[in-house]
């Protein structure tokens, strides 16, 4: 299983965080994040997301106390991070099924989907996606309001 969260600011700058699972199975953002600030196209975005998913699949343990988002952005609070960034989450399970969802900003300060959101905000793909397809889908999902 692999997971990556892709965060976009208003200028479409991108932070891609591979995830790793700690001993309790909790998903954590990796320090091996990828930043895309220059012009990029769908294919380059997709390639970087695939790179992050490959890092996630290795599940290398890291310091679970590190504030990866803080190191990546220099923002001082989670509230400031969440205000600045939209989120698209990608999970690929062991059977190769891709789950891609635009996570909403929830009232409790997290990103996620509320009950009934799945149909509008998430998609499932049973075939492998090319970098081009993946980048296109993620940018398309970002536009869902």
Molecular structure report:
It is built from 5 helices and 8 strands; from the N terminus they run E-E-E-E-H-H-H-E-E-E-H-E-H. By secondary structure, the chain is α+β, with helices and mostly antiparallel strands. The chain has one domain: NMB0488-like (NMB0488-like fold, 3-Layer(aba) Sandwich). Strands 1, 2, 3, 4, 5, 6, 7 and 8 form an 8-stranded antiparallel β-sheet that branches. A hairpin with a 5-residue loop joins strand 6 (98-105) and strand 7 (111-112). Helix 1 crosses helix 5 (131-142).
How would you sum up this structure in a few lines?
It is built from five helices and eight strands. By secondary structure, it is of the alpha+beta class.
CATH names the topology as NMB0488-like fold
The count of DSSP E runs of length 2 or more, i.e. the number of strands, is: 8
Query: How helical, in percent, are the residues?
Result: 25-40%
Q: Could you tell me how far the N terminus lies from the C terminus, measured between alpha carbons in angstroms?
A: 28 Å
InterPro entries: Cdil-like_sf
Observed structural traits:
145 residues; alpha+beta; NMB0488-like fold; 8-stranded antiparallel beta sheet; 5 helices; 32% helix
Topology diagram in text:
Elements: E1 2-8, E2 14-21, E3 27-29, E4 34-36, H1 42-58, H2 68-73, H3 78-84, E5 86-92, E6 98-105, E7 111-112, H4 118-121, E8 122-125, H5 131-142
Antiparallel strand pairs: 1-2, 1-5, 2-3, 2-4, 5-6, 6-7, 6-8
């Amino acid at each position: 299983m692999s997971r990556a969260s892709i965060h976009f600011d208003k200028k479409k700058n991108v932070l891609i965080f591979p995830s790793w699972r700690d001993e309790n199975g909790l998903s954590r953002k990796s320090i091996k994040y990828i930043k895309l600030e220059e012009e990029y196209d769908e294919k380059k975005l997709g390639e970087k997301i695939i790179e992050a998913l490959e890092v996630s699949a290795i599940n290398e343990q890291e310091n679970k106390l590190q504030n990866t988002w803080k190191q990546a952005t220099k923002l001082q609070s989670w509230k400031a991070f969440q205000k600045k960034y939209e989120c698209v989450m990608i999970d690929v399970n062991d059977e190769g099924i891709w789950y891609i969802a635009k996570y909403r900003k929830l009232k409790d300060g997290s990103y996620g989907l509320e009950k009934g959101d799945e149909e509008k905000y998430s998609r499932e793909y049973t075939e492998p996606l090319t970098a081009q397809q993946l980048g296109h889908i993620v940018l398309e999902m970002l536009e869902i309001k």
